[in-house]
């Protein structure tokens, strides 16, 4: 049974905030169907237009955004929309806008996030919009929960193990399908693990030098710690590397799967033992950690890239798909495809100058 943490009063937000991130355009041809999206693209079916302004969120871009909002939200007046640059530089690439949600509007936050007009605006100006309720809990999160593979780190650990024994192609294909939600995660994990039978148990020590953090991860954890956050990594991977990475980053919690080692301690058997950290287990861990730390779910942020991260994103105050698989980007509460994970701090309203202060 899930242990429910304390919850805030369930009220309709009176104000919303949209954080706009400039995203460098890519010359790649983007499929017209949302179901065929490549990683990092906006969920819209009309992607012919090219960005109108390079390198930053311009005033023209903001003006067009205000018009887009007033066209979508019944009763919203442009003069009630406010904007704030989160970078002091002349060519600012992150801008925060706040606006009231008129009592006459029937639009909810989820509908706004997935509105076709918003998607068209994003493609037109090469930006990403993250919408949130503008409450004190948006600005004061207390728990950050991360997936590990392809989120905290650049690799998929099971694929790296497979590459050492020549079954990378088979394992990678299963991994990609599972992370995109096309296969049951637990069944696919067990299938992949069976291919690892006979691998030396020292493989995790062999892999450690090959593991690299995603850009901005280390600085983000330092900043979150200085803000008083509790932190956790919930991985569908394996305990030896997840525990090592959690200790390296100074995370408060680390959960992952347990691979069985042969009786003589020399080889992996290809089997798993204990509870599987699948999608529902990740969700349960979030609920339990928040309850244990007496943190409201509204004060939780969950960040991941795979379909098995969506349930934990769904119970958090904010769920972010970071450089996620295509279907995950379409379903997640928010998506972020910027170069550095430090950009997560902008979602709390933390300016670039304040971020620099946190890292001194």
TrEMBL record:
InterPro entries: HAD-like_SerB, HAD-like_sf, HAD_sf, PSP. Its cofactor is Mg(2+). Its EC number is 3.1.3.3. Pathway: Amino-acid biosynthesis; L-serine biosynthesis; L-serine from 3-phospho-D-glycerate: step 3/3. Gene3D superfamilies: HAD superfamily/HAD-like. Residues 29-49 are annotated as: Disordered. It comes from the Eukaryota. The active site is at 147 (nucleophile), 149 (proton donor). GO terms for cellular component: cytoplasm. The keyword Cell membrane does not apply. Keywords: Amino-acid biosynthesis, Hydrolase, Magnesium, Metal-binding, Serine biosynthesis. GO terms for molecular function: L-phosphoserine phosphatase activity; magnesium ion binding. The keyword Membrane does not apply. GO terms for biological process: L-serine biosynthetic process. PANTHER family: PHOSPHOSERINE PHOSPHATASE. Belongs to the HAD-like hydrolase superfamily. SerB family. NCBIfam families: HAD-SF-IB, serB. This is phosphoserine phosphatase.
């Amino acid at each position: 049974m899930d242990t429910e943490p304390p919850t805030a009063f369930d009220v309709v937000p009176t104000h919303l905030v949209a954080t706009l991130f400039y995203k460098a355009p890519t010359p790649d041809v983007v499929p017209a169907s949302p179901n065929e999206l490549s990683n990092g693209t906006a969920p819209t079916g009309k992607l012919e237009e090219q960005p109108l302004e390079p390198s930053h969120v311009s005033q023209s871009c903001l003006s067009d955004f205000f018009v887009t909002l007033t066209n979508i939200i019944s009763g919203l007046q442009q003069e009630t929309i406010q904007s704030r640059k989160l970078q002091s530089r002349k060519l600012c690439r992150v801008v925060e806008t706040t606006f009231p949600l008129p009592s006459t509007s029937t639009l909810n936050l989820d509908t706004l996030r997935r509105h076709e007009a918003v998607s068209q605006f994003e493609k037109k100006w090469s930006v990403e919009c993250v919408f949130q309720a503008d409450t004190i809990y948006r600005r004061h999160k207390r728990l950050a929960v991360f997936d590990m593979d392809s989120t905290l780190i650049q690799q998929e650990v099971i694929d790296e193990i497979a590459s050492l024994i020549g079954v990378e192609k088979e394992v990678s294909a299963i991994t990609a399908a599972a992370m995109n939600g096309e296969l049951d995660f637990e069944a696919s994990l067990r299938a992949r693990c069976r291919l690892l039978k006979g691998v030396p148990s020292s493989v995790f020590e062999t892999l450690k030098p090959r593991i690299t953090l995603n850009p901005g991860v280390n600085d983000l954890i330092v900043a979150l710690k200085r803000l008083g956050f509790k932190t956790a990594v919930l991985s569908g991977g394996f305990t030896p590397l997840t525990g090592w990475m959690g200790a390296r980053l100074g995370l408060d919690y680390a959960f992952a799967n347990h691979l069985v080692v042969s009786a003589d301690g020399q080889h992996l058997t290809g089997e798993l033992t204990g509870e599987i950290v699948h999608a529902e287990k990740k969700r349960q861990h979030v609920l339990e950690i928040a309850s244990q730390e007496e943190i409201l779910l509204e004060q939780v942020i969950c960040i991941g890239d795979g379909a098995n991260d969506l349930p934990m994103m769904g119970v958090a105050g904010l769920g972010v798909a970071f450089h996620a698989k295509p279907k995950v980007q379409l379903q997640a509460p928010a998506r972020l495809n910027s170069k550095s994970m430090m950009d997560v701090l902008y979602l709390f309203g933390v300016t670039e100058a304040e971020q620099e202060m946190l890292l001194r």
